[in-house]
Design brief:
By secondary structure, the protein is mainly α. 74% of the residues lie in helices and 6% in strands. Helix 4 crosses helix 5. The mean pLDDT is 85.
Length: 170
């Protein structure tokens, strides 16, 4: 039994040394920097900004309507009967809830729109990185923009210029 364990340990050590003997080629890129120079980003950002402004205007319109109803209620509340007062208060509360619901839905919708606009750009960048990595024989590409790499050697190659060339960005 000890001989079998010894043979297994020896086999693991020998196979481990062959893994370390392989020639790895490392590269790095700052994906944030890449995305910032992609021309599609500007048009997506403008479209998202326009969409956000449209939603904001709708919220402002709803808030003006709400403030108008509250002001009208406060001016005339003394003259209302209990039934009318309760009806107006319920109407104001319902309007406030609709505004809050719209704000929440608008925020979620804006995040979804951002994903729809920027995901194709990120996919295009990722595809270009993968193409450059394969064409140049890289084993690993580290993303400095993701913040996970704390050190990279001078032997690590910055592939940003290669990816920019692949994407035809100057």
């Amino acid at each position: 039994m000890k001989k079998i364990i010894g043979i297994l340990v020896l086999a693991v050590l020998v196979s481990g040394s062959t893994v370390f003997a392989q020639d790895f080629k490392f590269g790095h890129i700052n994906s944030g920097e890449l995305l910032s120079v992609m021309p599609e980003r500007d048009s997506a950002r403008l479209e998202l900004q326009d969409y956000s402004q449209m939603l904001q205007k709708e919220i402002e319109t709803m808030q003006v309507e709400y403030q108008t109803k509250v002001s009208a209620y406060l001016e005339k509340q003394e003259s209302y009967s209990d039934l009318v007062r309760q009806s107006k208060e319920a109407e104001i509360q319902e309007m406030q809830q609709r505004i809050q619901g719209f704000q929440q839905t608008a925020q979620q919708d804006l995040q979804q729109k951002e994903g729809e606009l920027f995901q194709p750009i990120m996919d295009k960048a990722q595809a270009a990185i993968e193409k450059v990595a394969k064409a140049n024989g890289f084993t690993y590409i580290f993303d400095l923009g993701a913040g996970g790499v704390v050190y990279f050697s001078e032997t690590s190659i910055d592939i940003l210029p290669l990816v920019k060339t692949e994407l035809e960005i100057e």
